[in-house]
Amino acid sequence: MTRSQSATMTDSEDPILSVRDLQTVFYTDNETVRAVDSISFDVGRGETVGIVGESGSGKSVTARSIMGLIESPGKVLPESSISFAGRELTDLSAEQYQSVRGSGIGMVFQDPQQSLNPVYTVGNQIRESLKINRDITGEEAVEEAMRLLQAVGIPDAKRRLDEYPNQFSGGMRQRAVIAMMLACDPDFLICDEPTTALDVTIQAQILDLLKELQEERGLSILFITHDMGVIADIADRVNVMYAGQIVEKAAVEDLFSNPQHPYTKALLRSIPGEHSRADGLETIEGQVPTPNEPADHCRFAPRCPKSFGACDKVPPQHVSVGDSEGHTASCLLYPDDQSETARVETHIEKESERTEEQP
Ligand SMILES: Nc1ncnc2c1ncn2[C@@H]1O[C@H](COP(=O)(O)OP(=O)(O)OP(=O)(O)O)[C@@H](O)[C@H]1O
Ligand code: NI
Hints:
This protein has helices spanning 3-9, 59-66, 94-104, 122-134, 138-151, 157-160, 170-182, 200-217, 228-234, 252-257, 262-269, 340-357, and strands at 15-27, 32-44, 48-52, 74-76, 81-84, 87-88, 105-108, 188-192, 220-225, 237-242, 245-251, 318-320, 328-330.
């Protein structure tokens, strides 16, 4: 097996989550939005994997697809596979999915209000979760709820159990949501921009909390953000998304020290403080296109400083880049030891292999 094959088949030794050819489409009145267009990645046990990309690139739809939360007019297409702890999730009934969300996978959103009900006390909600998911009730549930609030660093936990979500600050509310997720004793946490609404100091505290919990509980985490700085802080491996596709995958060190895809390079230049524009921010010209048609070209080409003729005609496939195992990019500039003609040929061949594999 060549290195590039092994990289595309699996990117983790012992994945708890394997996503293959995930396609999530929204059929609206006037268009078909291919929000997630055939992405594949793994999350290993105890690992934090990041998904990074601009607004509209398909990050949240990826998370919601894994959680079984795509509703009409959205649909996860049947050729998609999401395997969690060896179990195929795309085949589950709504009821079975509910039990996966209750025990196996927890999710933390940007807005804690999505997870907390304003009319019940925080303690009430955690106890309810303990009852449903772990059959813990009464005094034991009160004790456990208190332990959970302590575990997420909420001081004066006993008193705070009796407070309502709106009596908590933004940072404390996000901690309470994390406590509520832990009440399900999950193996896997999906965090969708959990710190975006928080100021920088609080953001750093929440990231530290997640790292701590991960170490203590062996949690696997899928962490979604548009912020490369946050990715650098928290992720072990990273998937860079653009217009519904993954354009580069790498270990976090390799992504930052040796980025290959022109989009990744542009994203890295947009980190505040990294480069020299007066306001410290370099934005990428243009917008993420909404993908309506199957990819028959590179979707980044219109914004890409390196694009050439073939980029408008050939859909790029993942090939090995850089010097590290598991580092791939889908870009016609690679493999960079080949001539332009040979590179384009490589991608055309890989695409026909890929479409033949599909049932
Ligand atoms: N219910 C829906 N109906 C139609 N289109 C949708 C729906 N939900 C998402 N989309 C589309 O799917 C695409 C991806 O959206 P998604 O929310 O995943 O982006 P994102 O990467 O999470 O962006 P952000 O950083 O802004 O959260 C967008 O074009 C969005 O308009
Ligand atoms: Ni989002």
